[in-house]
Design a protein that fits this description.
The protein has helices spanning about 40-50, 70-80, 100-105, 120-130, 135-150, 170-180, 195-200, 205-215, 280-285, 290-305, 310-315, 325; strands at about 5-10, 60, 85-90, 110-115, 155-160, 180-185, 220, 230-235, 240-245, 255-260, 265, 275-280. The protein has about 325 residues and is of the alpha/beta class. The protein has a single domain (about 5-325), classed as Aldolase class I (TIM Barrel), CATH 3.20.20.70. The protein has a twelve-stranded mixed beta sheet with strand order 7-8-9-6-5-4-3-2-1-10-11-12. β2 (about 60), α2 and β3 form a beta-alpha-beta unit. α1 (about 40-50) crosses α10. The longest helix is centred in the C-terminal third of the chain and has 18 residues, at about 290-305. The two termini are about 20 Å apart. The protein binds S-adenosylmethionine and iron/sulfur cluster. S-adenosylmethionine (SAM) binds next to β3, β5 and α12.
């Protein structure tokens, strides 16, 4: 069992996109009210006085769309400047990134993942639920801005949906050949999107690898992150290809993470709500952070039993929240 030292922090549950696989149109979402969200001060208290003392040193800011959070640059600066922060990263849809990429870098953010499911603006807009002026170019500009500023590694997250963007797998993989970009294919999960998942199904990482292998060959990369991705490389490519296979493989035993939702729930497993802690209410009712440390330590101790264990255990998990609400 891995040491659990990585916290994914959702800064906000709202988003400026409505990706079909994450926040499908027609599905009514209940957003947290402003007063239900952790304030910056509460979040920093939790990080400094609860998470760091129990051993967390790596933080990823996500959402919803983290760049919608007012004051996000200052928050990045505050977390990055904590001596115990070993690693700070962000996952964003990139739409608002270009103008603030530099400030985020200056604030101490060094690693960024940007979601990019298609290189075709029409398909991209269809996936993100956009009916107005195409949003693809602005996201692409965000990616270029992040690259030019020097984010390293710069990762592009792709969710492959059969019949929607699966014909672009090779084009997306080819982005890693000339630039040191890292494309990560994430298996499509049935969270908050049962209609789409039922209609389309999903494609395994092994199938994607096979397509890529037939085109260029594929070698296992020497670069291995601390996360769940299996990392490969097209021979001679500058960047890498990561495959996150939570549907086809059970990697619970190497899970090193927990998730903190924007409204302050600490969740030990993405696919199982057992054991969640309401840290925001605890803070607001005056419970001492030393007591919260004890509760989180207990959650860390029981995490191996809570982990989903996927197909192996035959459990179904509980999905009452969407990825955007959990902090994907
Ligand atoms: N809004 C940001 C973004 O899209 O990058 C951050 C939050 S989003 C929930 C984080 C990641 O979760 C994205 O890379 C997205 O593609 C992925 N994701 C969301 N729903 C998913 C699903 N049903 N299956 C697999 N990945 C999903
Ligand atoms: Fe928004 Fe990210 Fe979910 Fe898309 S995947 S709807 S960008 S939170």
């Amino acid at each position: 069992m891995n040491q659990v030292d990585y916290l994914r922090i959702s800064l906000i549950d709202r988003c400026n996109f409505r990706c079909q696989y994450c926040m499908p149109e027609g599905v009514e979402l209940e957003y947290a009210l402003k007063q239900q969200l952790l304030t910056d001060a509460e979040l920093l208290t939790l990080i400094q006085e609860v998470f760091i003392p129990v051993g967390f040193t790596q933080f990823r800011l996500t959402g919803g769309e983290p760049l919608l959070r007012p004051g996000v640059v200052e928050l990045v600066k505050a977390i990055a400047s904590l001596p115990a922060t070993k690693d700070l990263s962000m996952t964003t849809n990139g739409f608002l990134l270009a103008p603030i990429a530099h400030s985020l870098y200056d604030a101490g953010l060094r690693r960024i993942n940007i979601s990019l499911d298609s290189l075709d603006p029409d398909i991209f807009d269809q996936i993100i639920g956009n009916r107005g002026r195409s949003r693809w170019q602005q996201v692409w500009d965000g990616i270029q801005a992040a690259y030019n500023v020097g984010f390293d590694p710069l990762k592009l997250n792709v969710v492959v949906i059969p019949g929607v963007n699966d014909h672009e797998v090779l084009d997306l993989a080819a982005l890693t050949i000339d630039k040191q970009w890292h494309v990560r294919f994430i298996e499509f999960m049935p969270i908050g999107n049962s209609q789409l998942f039922g209609d389309r199904g999903w494609i395994s990482s092994a199938d994607l690898r096979q397509q890529i292998r037939e085109q260029w060959g594929l070698t296992e990369s020497q670069v291995r992150g601390s996360g769940p991705a299996d990392v490969f490389q097209i021979p001679g490519a500058k960047g890498t290809l990561g495959f996150i296979s939570q549907m086809s493989e059970c990697f619970c035993d190497r899970c090193n993470r927990m998730r903190l939702s924007a409204d302050g729930w600490l969740r030990p497993c993405l696919l199982n709500e057992t054991g969640q802690l309401d840290l925001k209410t605890a803070l607001r009712t005056g419970i001492k952070t030393s007591q919260l440390q004890e509760q989180v330590r207990h959650l860390l101790a029981i995490k191996p039993e809570i982990n989903f264990k996927g197909r192996d255990s035959g459990t179904t998990g509980t999905y009452t929240r969407t990825m955007s609400q959990i902090g994907g």
